[in-house]
Amino acid sequence: MHEIKNRPILIVDDELANLKLLEKTLSYDGYTKIALIQDSRNVLAHYQSARPDLVLLDLNMPHLNGFSILEAFRALDDPLMPPVIVITAQDDRESLVKAFELGARDFITKPFDRLELLMRVRNLLEVYAAHRYQRKENKALEEVVHSRTVELRRTKLEIIRRLGKAAEYKDEETGNHILRMSRVSELIGRGSGCNSEGCELLLHASPMHDIGKIGIPDKILLKPGKLTPDEFEIMKTHAKIGAELLSGDSSEVLTTASIIALMHHEKWDGSGYPKGLKGDSIHPFARIVAAADVFDALMSDRPYKKAWTADESFKYLSDNSGSHFDPEVIRVFLSLRVEVLEIYAEYG
Fold it and tell me: Full-prediction pTM beyond 0.70?
């Protein structure tokens, strides 16, 4: 109760005698923070600076009447608007209904009963205090939930990144492959018009494109020479293996990663694997990853080849546009040559 008596109260009335009477009534009962406003034009500014917990408001005033002030309060769209008690000599039903429609929480007619006024003031201050406390608790809870959600997302994305890296840990020369490839994929996605959510999804889903290589025997995966036809058929199964490993989860990242894993070896002209998909039947993200993946393979030393130069690698993309690669993806890729090479300078 002591805390309630120290909460700020605003009294608005154009008659000084009424202001003094209300102030005396509340002060005598122990209320300590009472502001008086006689000119209704000053109400809004005071409210916004002092943030009272309760407003006692007259209706019949010059300049701005009580109804206009109620309308101004409502226009603020304050999520924690303090209660307003209308105290007026107007005892007609129309005024009462209009005041409640505009947001008043109580209506007292003059002359008022002192004890009745005090009980209503106390009750509304207690209710407002409860609302304020609940809002504070809700905000704290929202912050905790947000913090934990962010941490869970960070942990999940880190697990996803490590899953992608697991497919390449056997070959140290390709250790930064997923970092370069995923960032180039995001870059191309942005250049192709993907929104921020799509680019982020591409960044986090693309590192798992080769997760299926976990299921490929080392003697094939790390073979320094050209694969035999039978060995190549086994190597090709990594696309389906990866898609199966990543399927069955409702997560948008894993669902997208499963699609990319399955389709990133499909070719624009239909000569790819595992399904021989063609053109727009290949998911747009898989078309982007296909180009980023091949480009990085060309730029890197592998057991079966030496790294190509940047000029040679870009030329390969250009030469195979419309056959292996989506022509639009390659157009964007080539237009971002400087940015692509900046990624390689950072993660090379």
Answer: no
